[in-house]
Amino acid sequence: MKILILNGPNLNLLGKRETSIYGNQDFNSYFVELKSKFPTLQLEYFQSNIEGEIISKLQEVGFSYDGIVLNAGAYTHTSIGIGDCIKAIETPVIEVHISNTFSRETFRHQSFISPNAKGVIIGFGLKSYDLALEYFN
Question: I want to staple 120 with a disulfide (CB 3.0 to 4.6 A). Which of 10, 22, 95, 110 is the partner?
Fold first, then answer.
């Protein structure tokens, strides 16, 4: 199975950014661990701070991959375009968040992705990605 892990804005700063919320590990080293944990999955990783690049990547793989694990970061709460794109593609999307967005600021309680996602995993740290990949495994 071919799976894309797609991270949005500021997730390139994992391990440096607000470590009390997001932890001390950078995503690139975690991705190596994921590939080792899920050897039967063909995993790819893409990160962008730019909304249009995220939409373009979703469109690029959204009719040919078996799954997408998406952490759209702050775009989760603001991007109707990403939500619409997920509705338009065929590949199932699992929305993930490292932190429990419902225990944070009120604006983080809204997701434009959730209504169109296959499922949502929130608040288990980086383990949220493992749980999403279990669905596809």
Answer: 95
